[in-house]
Structures are given as structure tokens and as C-alpha cells.
Amino acid sequence: MSKSHPEQGLGSLVSNRRRACGARPGSPELSLFDDLEAVLGAGNVLRGEAAREKVHTLYYPVGTPLAVLRPGTTDELSQALRLCNAAGQPVVPFGGLTNLVESAHAQDMIAITLERMAQVEVIDTVNSVMTVQAGCKLQTAQEAAEAVDLFFPVDIGARGSATLGGVLSTNAGGNRVLRWGMMRDNVLGLEAVLADGTVISSLNSLLKNNAGYDLKQLFIGSEGTLGVVTRAVLRLRTRPTSQCTALVAVEDFEALPKLLEAAHRGLGGTLCAFEVMWGDTYRLATTAPAPALPILPHGHAYYALIESMGADQEADAARFETLLGEALEAGLVADAVLAKSTAETAAIWMVREEGTAETARRGAIFLFDVSLKIGDMEAYVRALKASLADRFGEAADVWVFGHLGDGNLHININIHGPAEDVRHDVEALVYEPLARVKGSISAEHGVGLHKRDFLHVSRSAEERGLMARLKTALDPNHILNPGKIFVIEGDGIAAPAH
Amino acid sequence: MSKSHPEQGLGSLVSNRRRACGARPGSPELSLFDDLEAVLGAGNVLRGEAAREKVHTLYYPVGTPLAVLRPGTTDELSQALRLCNAAGQPVVPFGGLTNLVESAHAQDMIAITLERMAQVEVIDTVNSVMTVQAGCKLQTAQEAAEAVDLFFPVDIGARGSATLGGVLSTNAGGNRVLRWGMMRDNVLGLEAVLADGTVISSLNSLLKNNAGYDLKQLFIGSEGTLGVVTRAVLRLRTRPTSQCTALVAVEDFEALPKLLEAAHRGLGGTLCAFEVMWGDTYRLATTAPAPALPILPHGHAYYALIESMGADQEADAARFETLLGEALEAGLVADAVLAKSTAETAAIWMVREEGTAETARRGAIFLFDVSLKIGDMEAYVRALKASLADRFGEAADVWVFGHLGDGNLHININIHGPAEDVRHDVEALVYEPLARVKGSISAEHGVGLHKRDFLHVSRSAEERGLMARLKTALDPNHILNPGKIFVIEGDGIAAPAH
């Protein structure tokens, strides 16, 4: 059932790394470390080489933290945060360090890992909920659900490293958002610690609870700037027992939303992925040395991966075949193949996943993760390719693929030559046209350090002002992951530097 | 396709009405009304009888407001709120006045209706989103979606009166939460005005948008205490074209979660309602003078209404029959009937809906709307019946039914005799046992005035403190719907009065 999203290090993919953190680093009083050791135990306040090793990652580096704290309980974390808050000491919570926007960059700050709080605490099969600690890996939770014949639908490539605290703090998405939503839609309750040490335990396990404000929403997707998530109650689903996966070729962009609509209608609620690759990205992903095979011939304009999950393999496959037959007949689809085995399903998914891997092998690369309405996509991509060609000529390669059913496009751009110098120019070409079509600079990766200078593209001055109001209400000393998403100056959020 | 939830006035159902508002009413300076008239036009600042008529409702009365404002645009509302905020004048936004917890009680305050902002602004069929103004009726939006062959799944009995601003502010639920979620899960973006007049326009129409804090969450389910919702972007779905509805009889409570699980698995993602009535409630709802017929014989312990919606009537019905056959064979179900026509479907839903109507006809009644884990329900209901019998003997009738698949039970309690005197005793018997099982005092109706004294049953002191922090950050003068959900005193939320 599970797909192979091989985890991969980013290697040279550091081009949109930003070093300046906009934080307020400094050397805290030595007494703070003594106090932290008294709370956590000396072995859980790592310094020097031990701290550097703890934050080593194959993804974006996070700099050199002053120390790494390893609280073992919510209460220990609460005490540690209270000490840091009193000292005005910036702290950065981190999980699996697989973030793609440097949300956990911790240079000269105190980093906090919840690796000692990594348990699945309870699985309640009658009510289909699971209580987990934030340091628990996503894959561990998925497997614990499967072990009792249930299903946790959120899935990303980094499942084996990413922690639930991280995927909650960043509101992770993935390949099944179309059906089951983002992380926000799959969590019923959570526990978080505020900057001042207050423990907000909202471990609700009920599907419906309108007893006052839904406080958990504050901590989901706010990238650790409003509180540190310590535990959560996940909503589990019935485990699907059927899976149908097809790869289809499409000649005109206009056919894609029609095909998506036909899939929604024809598959009766079981559609769970609708992934699209632009034709040149498909060619790259299925040409040696890429390991994936060209399951359909090269030369079509677009390729879509369509997947359903249900409860009756035979009936679902028949329905899927009907859908594909009708789509071929209606001219929506030029060619199609429906997987007949688990191996064929894996081969189709490999094509989709090799999109990222192959583009990364071509040298320094900028990774983007935008969302916009399906109706705006074709023109946006065409204009982006034109503007990059204007600016960089032959030196720019643009690879487009993504979760089309969710409005989410991943755009990988190679610029041949010295990449760091052109980073801002490339970002501006990608992000600024999104303002006109009300697109988002981040569909699922978050803002972190990478996108904060472009937050104004997607969010108004009033929205940014309200974010600052919330930040200041919950973290008046601004110690929690400072400089991520935005930089607060005075009462509002600092304008972009350029 | 649509079901008959006849709208009904509450008639004598005013027993858990509370008159004291905990607000800070008073007589504002006359100049405030002059200023408001200058902004809105004299015809849109209603006083005296015109104001009283505007807030007339068959549901819970809302008292006599000082005035009713009728802004025609977001900007007019912004200017009006700025004036009220400067004057420290409490305001109460209201929609269709169908709320069941007096969330719009406006005695001696200024009430605000968005009835002049009632349009469906745009329907985007390519991206399946609809932009609406807050004064638009829920039913109007549902019908506008149907007109373009799309579907807005949130549905409640008061659809013809309730406005989208109201269902958003209260995070309404209804009969299809199991499949499509609450209102929160069906809105992509919204626009709201803060107490100081700041317009937060987060009219996102993207399924995935992680560009900073998800601000819309603040205004959903906060009952108008953090901002006034003015517009929203609703997520539309593919319109289901099949509907299968069954009524089944069940002898043991333990069989119900097993049947729910079998329905989830067997119906492959199309299950959208799992409603249960306790046996005596079924008998009442299907005995003359009730109009509903006893489709299955009286005498079983529980009756469940199970419904699926999909895309293939024949295949879905076959699958449903298989499910029922297996459930009969496994002994989960004692008897079952699957509707064979639209009329039979309506007849089954009438049984479910007559539960409320019949209990209301029996005189003064207290309506409750709790949620708790399915595994805790049977013992909770049994203990509640025992404690009510201890306290009231023969004078108490307890009627239980609800959205079992969502963990939500509606409990209607008749107390024969003078009802107002015993209101608090009944509430305490219903709510206090929920603390032990981590249940909620409100699954979907909200807190309003009715439940604020019991908020501590479901939310900790730290959670209530954070709610107060948010309230003060967004509405420092506490002018927005004051006294609803909680009463703020000093830095925190007032403890219950008893």
C-alpha cells in the first residue's frame, strides 16, 4: 500500500539558503545553562561538538546552536522555556530537520529537540484516535495505526525522519491532501507550551467540540513561533483495502481540470491523488540515468498520475477503467495505463518522485512550492518560463510538477553558473506574479527564512499586522523561533528589505 | 437529494434561557448615533420598534437592543466598528437568529445585521469555490452550488434562516460531518473586521496555503467575540448522484461502533451519516400524534440511520445491501430496511427529525448538545438517567439521539413542573460528568450565554487564560459580543459563579 518516496539528502541544494537569521543571538549568562542543567540534567543540555552533531542533517543546515536541550517531559520543557523567557533567550524547536525553508535555523540560539518524547502513547481503536508525543516520527505513527488495521493518511517523503511535532508545526501536506486534507485536518487536539512555560493542554479527541476557541489552530502551521507542540491526538481512518493507480497523457492543459472533475465524479469519493508533470519534466524523470521507465511514450504535453483508494479492489478497478475509457473517448486523455500489480503501481509513483531527484542531480537548484488556482496555472508557468529565459537565456531550466488537484505546483529551477548571486532575482520572478492571481508563495513547505521577504506577495499589511499582534500576545519577548515567517519591528512586521 | 429538516420555532423551549448578559450595557452618547447615521445612512440605524422588529425570532429571544445597524459594505462596517470601539460601545453581530445558546443576545447593546450583504458574489466552477457575503443564507449558497452541478455539504435544519456569517461564527455542524466535516472544514478563506475597524481580508481560495498564520481560524467558532465575519470563500464539492439510506435496529450498544466501523470499511469512503436514536426516543418519534411512521417495529434498544452518497446508484446500493446482509448475519443488526425510493428516504429522515420536534411538544424542555467518545456514551447516558431519576423522580423524561458517528449526542430533557427553577441543577447533572470522560459541553451549538458557567468542565484554566489573552489582543476594549463564551475579569476569565 505504501509508496516509495525515498528520502534523499539535498546535497548541493543549498542555493536558496539564507544565513542571516534576523534574530537576536548573543551569549546568554552562564547561569542560564546552570539553571537549565538543574532542570533537565547535565546530559540533556548539549554544548559544543555534541550540540553540532545533534543538529546534523542532510537537508538544509541549521547553523551552530549555542546549545541543544533535550527535555524528557512536558513539564521539563515548560520549566526550560520559563527560564529562557526570563533571560530573553531565543530558542528554536526542531524535529527531524527535514524542513525545506530553514524554519529550524538556530545559529547562536538554543535549539530544543523532543527526541526523548517520541512515544505513541495510546491508540484507541473504538474511537479511531491516537495520542502521540511530538518527537514521534511520522512513519512510526503510520505503522502503529496499520498494526491495528487503521490508517493515518498524511504522508510525505521524509516520513522516516520528520517528527509529528514538525509536521504539525508546519502543517505538512503531501500526496493525499485532495482526499484527506493537510495535517491540520487530521489532528483533533494538541498540547503545546507557550514561551512563558504555560502548558496549553487541548488534547481533545472528539470530532466535534465547539466549547470555546479552537486553540490548537494557533500552533498548527505557525512554525514554532507561537508555542512548542509536545503532544497531539491524531484522527485515524478506516484503512483502505483497494488501490488503483493510473498514468495518463494529456495534450491540452484545459483537459486537466475536466479530467480532475471527471475523476471526482466517476470515482465516487475515492480519488486521493491527482499529480501532474509537465512534459519536459516527465522526459527528464524517465530518461537515463534516471531509474524510472517511460511507462507512456515521451512527447505528450502533460502526464497525470491518478489514484483512488477504497474498499473493493475489483469494483474500484472496474470503475476506474470506465473512467479512463470515457476520458479516452471524450478526448481528454491521449493515452493511459492502469497499474495491474503493486510493482506497476510503484513504477508509476517512481516517475512522479524522480521529478525532484533528477532535477536536483543537475546542479545547483532553487526549489519552489507555490499554489494557485488551476485555471491560472498554465498562463503562470508559461510567463515564468518566458521571464526566466529573458533574464537567464539558456542558463535556466524550469521543471514543473505537483499536486494539481490541490492547486499546488512544485517548480524546480536550475540556473547554470554561480547560483547564490541570482537567488533573489529568481525568487522575485517566481513569487511576484503570484500577487496578481492571489496565489500563495507557500503551498505546504512554509515560510521559514526563505520566503519571509516575499510574505507581502500573499498576505496583506493588515494580515501581517494581525500575525504580529498574535505573536506579541503569545510570546511578548519574542523568544520562540525568532526571525522565522517574519521579523517583528516595533508594533508591526518589518517590510521586506528590498 | 435534500432532506426535510423542517424549520421550527422553539415555542416554549425557553427554559435554559438566561437573561443576565454579563456585559457592560449602558446609554451611549447621542453623538455616537449621529456619527453612525452619518456613516450608514439614517435608514440603516434602526431604533425603538424598528430595532425590536428586526431582531424578532421564533428561536431564543435576543432582548431589546439599543439599535440595529445595517452596514451595506465591509467598509461601512469597519467605520461603524471604529466608532463603537472609540466609544467603548458593546456590539453584537447577528445572522439568522437561529442560535440555540443565545450567542446573539443583545439586550442594551448595539446589534449588527449583515442582511444588506447577502450576495453570492462569484462561483468559480473550474476551481470549485464560491465567494459569499456573510448575510447570505446557507440555503441560498447550497442552491447556487447545485445550479452549477456542484455541492456545498454543510447542512443544518435552519438552512433557510441561518446566514453564512452565523454558521461560520459558530462553526456549525449538522448531519454530514462524518464525511465532509464542520463549517471550519469547508471554508478556504474569509474576511472579517476587528473591533477597531481593521479589515482582515484573508479571502484565500486555495486548498493549500502555508504562507504564515492561518488567520481565518480565529473567526470560525468564536461566536463573534474576535471579529465580525463579512465574506467567505467556500469550498465546493462534486455533487453526489447516488444516495442510499437505511434504518436498522440494534440490540446492544456495543454493536453500534462495530456497525459504524463496518460501514466505514464496507462503503469505501461514501458513508456520510450515522445517526442513532435510543429506543424510547424512537418510540416517541413514531407514535401518534407524531407524523412519522414506525418503519421498523418498536421494542429494539437502538435505531441507526445510515446513509451513503456516491456516484453510482446501482453499485452503491448493491454494496449497501451487502453491508446490511453481513451485519444481519454477524448479529450486529436485528432488523434493517433500505430505502427504495426518495419517498422512503424522506420517511426515514422524518423519524430522525421528529425526535426533537416530539420532545419539544411535551412542554418545557432543556436542549443539550454534548460530545464524548462513543465508548463512553452508553455508561454516560445510563448514569445521567439515573441521576435525573434520583433528583426528579417521574418528573424527568430523557430523550437521546444524535450524530453517533461524530461522537455528538443531543439530549432533550423534559422536567414536568416549573422548569426555570431547576435549570442549573439539570445542567450540572448533564455537564459535570463530562469532565471525567473528557467530553465537551458543546459539540456544535457553541457556548453563548447558556454554557459559559460550565466552560471549565471542558476547558482547563490555562486554555481559558489563553482565550482571554486572544480576546484582549484582538479586542482590547471588549466591545465584541461581550459576555458570550466567557466573562473576562482582569487578566483572566471569571470563574463560574457557583
From TrEMBL, chains A, B:
It holds the Pfam family FAD-oxidase_C. Residues 61-239 form the FAD-binding PCMH-type domain. GO terms for molecular function: FAD binding; oxidoreductase activity. Residues 1-26 are annotated as: Disordered. Keywords: FAD, Flavoprotein, Oxidoreductase. This is FAD-binding oxidoreductase. The keyword Metal-binding does not apply. GO terms for biological process: respiratory electron transport chain. The lineage of its organism: Bacteria, Pseudomonadati, Pseudomonadota, Alphaproteobacteria, Caulobacterales. Belongs to the FAD-binding oxidoreductase/transferase type 4 family. PROSITE patterns: FAD_PCMH (PS51387). Its cofactor is FAD.
